[in-house]
Amino acid sequence: MSLEHDPVRDKRRRRRKPPDGPVDAYTIQEFCRRNGISERMFFKMQSLGLAPRLMSVGTRKLVSIEAAAEWRRAREAATDLLAKQE
């Protein structure tokens, strides 16, 4: 193994800096943290067709703030519907 720096590997190891202002999209991890759900629950909901819409940006999957808001409204509406049925 060489002791020289590999710029490609070094670049991959760098962390993204947080944005200076408000964000327009969340990573799945950020979305889950902001909405109080686990990533495991996110992927379970995705398999059931209940997760927010995702967009691809390069190799990353992001949730737009609009998709997050629509998802919350849909979850509220589903909860309201269940409450009315009881």
Descriptive terms for the model:
3-stranded antiparallel sheet; 86 residues; Multidrug-efflux Transporter Regulator, Chain: A, Domain 2; 52% helix; elongated; 13% strand; single chain; alpha+beta
Written overview of the protein:
It is a single chain. By secondary structure, this protein is an alpha+beta fold. The chain has a single domain, classed as Orthogonal Bundle (Multidrug-efflux Transporter Regulator, Chain: A, Domain 2), CATH 1.10.1660.10. The protein is built from 4 helices and 3 strands. The chain has helices spanning 7-13, 28-35, 39-47, 65-85; strands spanning 25-27, 55-57, 60-64. Strands 1-3-2 form a 3-stranded antiparallel β-sheet. Strand 2 and strand 3 (60-64) form a beta hairpin. The chain is elongated and about 65 Å long. The termini are far apart.
Model regions low in confidence, pLDDT < 50 over at least 5 residues: none
User: Helical residue percent?
Assistant: 40-55%
- The domain tally reads 1
CATH architecture: Orthogonal Bundle
Order of helices and strands: HEHHEEH
Strand content: 5-15%
Q: Helical segment tally?
A: 4
What structural class do you assign from the helix and strand content? alpha+beta
Through-space gap between termini: 66 Å
Looking across the biggest beta sheet, what order are the strands in?
A: 1-3-2
Radius of gyration: 18 Å
How many strand units?
Answer: 3
Choose one word for the global shape: elongated
The biggest sheet amounts to:
3 strands, antiparallel
What name does the CATH topology carry? Multidrug-efflux Transporter Regulator, Chain: A, Domain 2
Average pLDDT over all residues: 88
CATH C-level name? Mainly Alpha
